[in-house]
Amino acid sequence: PPGGPSSTSQASMPADPSAESIAQRLAAVRAAVAQACAKADRSPSSVTLIAVSKHQPAAAIRAAYAAGHRDFGESYAKEFRDKHAALADLPDIRWHFIGHLQRNKMKWIVGQVQLHHAVDDMIGLDELTRRSYALGITQDVLLQVNLANEPSKRGCTEADLPVFADVLLRSPGLRWRGLMILPPNEGDPSPWFDRLAAWRERLQQTHHRALQAQKSSLDVLSMGMSGDFAAAIAAGATHVRVGTAIFGPRPPKSA
User: Fold this and answer.
1) Fewer CB in a 10 Å sphere around the end CB: N or C, the chain?
2) d(CA 203, CA 165)
3) How far does CA 178 lie from the centroid of its chain?
4) H-state helical runs in the chain
5) CA angle 146, 151, 155 (to 5 degrees)
6) What is this structure's pTM?
7) pLDDT tens across 130-145, in order?
């Protein structure tokens, strides 16, 4: 969850100005999440704030961690692999993988992240199942849904959602926790958030027994980013993915 004010005092904050600014922006985002929850008559503890740290240096993640944050999201497997190793000394950090995952890079992700947000095609789903089962673990996953059928975005179509649901609920090694969406960049995202929430409710009802067998309640809705997380919270988001508002503009990728 987003958590309350950081217990780290200003005196113990890192001297690096960028670390101080990250802590300040993080506090502002937490306050905005709490405000959106209050407006929606929800508890702030019902929303997990994921600090999306892709293309940010490990030092930026350390700064947010020092400010009391624990949930971080990465979108690129190699980048996650390197940061996971560099930050291995942070024992209670919680990693989320929120990007497309290629089959040959799953070995760096499966079993290493708390939640994989972006199961987006059947080939990847099959490989996730195989690897998780071979490791003898249960990997929590979300199904990414492309409700607007945008060619530029991944995710299963609305028409294929029931088929993916059936496969996810019969996949040993996986626990299907919920749904994820990237709404269209233009226009009001609220209708898309509401539509995804309605699908979650429908799936909870139609697959109640299978979800129980998988020890899942389909409790996660991952939706909302820096510009629209308040609307997502109003629609029932349980996880919001915020990067720029916490870390500032992403630095250019190194060669």
Assistant:
1) C
2) 8
3) 11
4) 17-39, 58-66, 77-86, 122-135, 161-168, 190-206, 208-213, 229-235, 244-247
5) 30
6) 0.89
7) 999 999 999 999 999 9
